[in-house]
Amino acid sequence: MIEVNLIGTGGMLPLPERWLTSLWLEYKGKACLIDCGEGTQIAINKHGIKLSHLDILLITHVHADHISGLPGLLLSLGNCGKTGVLKIYGITGITDTIKKLCCICPALPFEIEINELSTYDKSEFDWNEISVSSMPLEHSIDCLGYSFILNRKPVFNPQKAKSLKIDVKYWKELHSGKTITINNRQITSEMVTDRKRKPIKITYITDSRYFSKMTDFAENSDLLISEGMYGDDEYIGKMAEKGHMVFSQSAELAKNSKSKMLWLTHYSPALKNPNEYSESIRKIFENTIISHDGEKIVLK
């Protein structure tokens, strides 16, 4: 199961009641964080999350509200006992930005490994049994959206295992897909499992104008997390010029991509009460959540 926690929901600058947008995903004791604007480590602590579980950091782009909190995050991570390697992924050229930010935290007790992703095409890599994809977005500067796919094990059937007289000590191996040999008899995973389960998919898109390729990228997401700077459609033109979306565009994206659930995030500081638009947005996509800081779900 994947734990998903929206650390903050704000865009541009942190507010007393709204931290900057970032996302925490945790699976099997290891965590991935997307973006780290000013004060992200404080918000993480506020939500009772163990920062020491952080394994990789994904950066969407190098605007301040998405990366300026990096030095403080790294120092806090070191104080939490982090050792080993922290992998950071981001746009082509992000290495220089990270090195400049890290000039104020040069002595860390762990190593940083920086990985640059394409800003022209999709990139893919594996993390903690999860397939991660990035896609270039359309913002005022190079920016990436991220998608996560966890292929789940098929349903294990203990009765099938018992009927084949397979010792319990082999069940875990078989459930993981391995083939074992007992008394010259080969036992495959298919012999002790039932139906296959659909993968879990999470898609994260902020800081982009709406464009058609988003639909394929977010297709069949169990959870789509997408920005909404404003709730009124009158801002669509203005936001498109700056490389942003409004609530209705993210709702259309959720509907067109056949996503199961939409979390809105990255609200403008001028948007004081996002919930006032809940009824109108749910007419477009019913399962829309007007997210708040600390919005949490466990996907199984």
Would you write up a description of this structure?
The protein has 300 residues and is an alpha/beta fold. The chain is 23% helix and 28% strand. It contains ten helices and 16 strands. The protein has helices at residues 40-46, 64-67, 70-79, 94-101, 158-163, 171-175, 213-218, 236-242, 247-256, 278-282; strands at residues 2-8, 22-27, 30-34, 54-58, 85-91, 111-117, 123-127, 130-136, 144-150, 180-182, 185-187, 200-205, 223-227, 262-265, 288-290, 295-299. The strands form three sheets. It has a seven-stranded mixed β-sheet. A seven-stranded mixed β-sheet has the order 7-8-9-12-13-14-15. It has a two-stranded antiparallel ribbon with strand order 10-11. Strand 7 and strand 8 (130-136) form a beta hairpin. The longest helix has 10 residues, at 70-79. It is globular and about 70 Å long. It starts with a strand and ends with a strand. The mean pLDDT is 94.
- Based on CA atoms alone, the radius of gyration comes out at 21 Å
Strand order of the largest sheet: 6-5-4-3-2-1-16
The level of helicity is 10-25%
The number of helical elements comes to: 10
Q: Structural class of the helix and strand makeup?
A: alpha/beta
Stretches where pLDDT falls below 50 for ≥5 residues?
none
Percent of sequence in beta strands: 25-35%
Tell me about the largest β-sheet: 7 strands, mixed
Distance between the termini: 4 Å
**Global morphology:** globular
Run of helices and strands:
EEEHEHHEHEEEEHHEEEHEHHEHEE
* Assembly annotation: single chain
Mean pLDDT: 94
Number of strands: 16
